[in-house]
Design goal:
Blueprint lengths: L2 H25 L13 H8 L5 E2 L11 H12 L12 H15 L8 E4 L1 H13 L5 E6 L3 H9 L3 E6 L10 H5 L6 E7 L11 H14 L2 E5 L21 E6 L12 E4 L2 H14 L5 H12 L3 H23 L12 E2 L6 H10 L2 E2 L1 E2 L11 E4 L4 H11 L5
The protein binds pyridoxal-5'-phosphate.
The site of pyridoxal-5'-phosphate has 13 residues, from helix 5.
């Protein structure tokens, strides 16, 4: 096309776009279930802020991906790994994941029972679409990661929040959980270490809830994405104690690969085969080159992870001290990279923090029982974190 033809095409596109902008609302009626969900509060916060603000709202490591992973991707491109892959993902990657699940989690899951997904986000969505029906109840942690409720709502089943108490250091206790179970209970979405609280569940509670899943025949969807970001505690997967578990894990947090959108789910083979239908018609397969990266991340040296977690721990100690100095109520931080302290008025606090050039996130986005909390992410450099915490000291609450 010559320049004039190009300009004509652009003009036409602009006219069409304007038309849709003007009449879009009248022409397009979206499904009612979309009224049940809202865009993420966290994204909204980012849109509100100027780029010089220090971001303690972000949920991704501030590290670059491991060098060996970067090299493997470059080699992968040279070798032409730019085509569709098998729907479940490259066998070589699934074999590495299977080895990892055995080594780290004592799980015997063969590569055929593993599906590589476009982030843990897709794995959660697939699980919800593939498992939940209209009349089902799905237990979710409150406070909990905001995608859980959205995925349940989009499946048109009913989300039942299970309150996690700050008095229990925000650890889900089997007693809090038990009373919510009834014949309609289809699943529980478990998350340890937790976003947004930074808590790690105790082995006894994980086992007791896994036993309940077996006895009452419901599924546990276990989001273990922060498994490796843990401080002096041990992570347990409920899949060690029950077959009714879908394990979700990925590469976004452990290897700072958020933008590569790569994760996996693993479980009983017949369930995974059925869930594959949702994945197949949704994305066909995860990105080929991200799969190469993920394979290298698992097969290569793990020193990177240790170094990153050590640095997160240093920041965690700083945040813990500052929160304690301010006398704010907060649970013990044992994993992930978040603190979830209570303040007097979270909306005001977040607004004042913004005025001081610090982005935090109000707790209300994470559930019904946390309107007085704010989430602070320490996935930002130590220097910036210290600077931001100094600014937050100016807030009188
Ligand atoms: C608890 C939890 N699960 C899942 C995800 C999504 O991870 P991914 O980047 O793999 O989609 C996040 C991201 O913040 C998270 O915090």
């Amino acid at each position: 096309m010559n320049n004039k033809q190009n300009k004509d095409v652009y003009k036409k596109i602009r006219i069409i776009l304007n038309y849709y902008q003007l009449y879009g609302e009248i022409m397009v009626k979206t499904a009612n279930r979309l009224n049940l969900i809202e865009l993420s509060q966290i994204r909204k916060m980012f849109e509100l802020t100027d780029e010089n603000a220090i971001n303690l709202g972000i949920g991704e490591p501030d590290f670059d991906i491991p060098e060996n992973v970067k090299m493997a991707m470059i080699d992968g491109l040279d070798a032409g790994f730019t085509h569709y892959t098998p729907n479940k993902g490259f066998l070589e990657l699934r074999e590495e994941i299977s080895k990892k699940l055995k080594k780290d989690n004592k799980l015997a899951i063969d590569p055929e029972s593993i599906m590589v997904t476009v982030g843990a986000s897709e794995a959660l969505y697939i699980s919800a679409q593939g498992l939940f029906e209209k009349e089902d109840e799905v237990l979710i942690p409150d406070p909990g990661f905001l995608s859980y409720k959205a995925c349940v709502d989009l499946s048109e089943s009913k989300a039942i929040p299970v309150e996690i108490k700050i008095e229990n250091d925000y650890k889900m206790k089997v007693e809090d959980f038990q009373e919510k179970i009834n014949p309609k209970t289809k699943a529980f979405i478990m998350n340890s270490p937790s976003n947004p609280t930074g808590s790690v569940m105790d082995k006894e509670d994980i086992k007791a809830i896994a036993d309940l899943a077996t006895d009452h025949d419901f599924m546990i969807i276990s989001d273990e994405i922060y498994e490796k970001i843990i401080y002096g505690k041990k992570h347990y997967s409920p899949a060690q104690f029950s077959d009714n578990v879908i394990v979700i894990n990925g590469f976004s947090k452990t290897y700072a690969m958020t933008g590569l959108r790569i994760a996996y789910l693993a479980g009983e083979n017949d369930v995974v085969e059925e869930l594959l239908k949702v994945h197949q018609y949704n994305t066909a397969c995860a990105s080929s080159i991200s799969q190469i990266a993920a394979r290298e991340a698992l097969a290569g040296p793990q020193k990177y992870v240790k170094t990153m977690v050590k640095e997160f721990e240093r920041r965690k100690d700083l945040v813990t001290k500052r929160i304690q100095d301010r006398g704010l109520k907060c649970s013990k931080l044992e994993g992930a990279f978040y603190a979830f302290p209570q303040v007097e008025n979270a909306t005001e606090y977040v607004q004042k923090a913004l005025e001081l050039g610090v982005i935090t996130v109000p707790g209300s986005g994470f559930g019904e029982n946390c309107e007085n909390n704010i989430r602070i992410s320490y996935a930002n450099s130590y220097e910036k974190l210290e600077k931001a915490l100094n600014r937050l000291e100016l807030i009188k609450q």
